[in-house]
Design a protein that fits this description.
Radius of gyration: 23 Å
Structural class: alpha+beta
Number of helices: 3
Strand content: 25-35%
Distance between the termini: 94 Å
Helix content: 10-25%
CATH architecture: Beta Barrel
CATH topology: OB fold (Dihydrolipoamide Acetyltransferase, E2P)
Strand order of the largest sheet: 8-1-2-11-10-9
Order of helices and strands: HEEEEEHEEEEEEH
CATH class: Mainly Beta
């Protein structure tokens, strides 16, 4: 065969290696929505989504407590995040079972299934505005979405303290 029939290599392996960008390492996370808030879930949480839960209202409960639900023979409080964040509630709620390692399980009302997102660990978070709750103190722009970096442990601690104050 005549070697002139074969095309010349376009690049040598050393120049090809230089031209290929190193893939960015991203972190696989999930977020959920409440109104126009996109809230990031911490990796340490255990979560599960429910569409239909029977919620029983409790008289004289705080406004954030939608009521109680029975889930697998456990009575769990249903936290109305729309009320906490002062957002208009949608007609169809999704319920997010949330188990933090340091607190009892709760159910959070949200506006849909948790969605996956790839986060760049190099992307720096900034302080959220003064109008956001303390447990949503960090904000990050990622892939065109404004995400609030939640501290669900702090949220649960604040709710426990409010409950204790009401009892005493």
């Amino acid at each position: 065969m005549n070697p002139s029939h074969f095309s010349q290599p376009l690049q040598t392996s050393s120049t090809l290696t230089k031209n290929i960008e190193q893939p960015q390492k991203t972190e696989h996370c999930f977020y959920y929505r409440v109104g126009d808030f996109a809230i990031l879930l911490e990796k340490s949480l255990t979560t599960e989504v429910f569409l239909n839960l029977s919620v029983t209202a409790i008289p004289f409960s705080p406004n954030w407590c939608k009521g109680l639900t029975n889930l697998r023979s456990d009575l769990l409080p249903v936290v109305d995040l729309h009320q906490l964040l002062m957002k208009k509630s949608v007609n169809q709620h999704h319920f997010l079972y949330l188990k933090h390692p340091n607190f009892p399980a709760v159910i959070l009302s949200c506006d849909g299934y948790p969605q996956p997102i790839e986060l760049d660990p190099q992307n720096k978070s900034s302080k959220a505005s003064l109008n956001t709750p303390q447990w949503l103190a960090q904000h990050q722009q990622s892939l065109g979405k404004g995400l609030f970096i939640a501290n669900h442990g702090l949220l649960l601690k604040i709710l426990q303290q409010q409950h204790q104050t009401m009892i005493n």
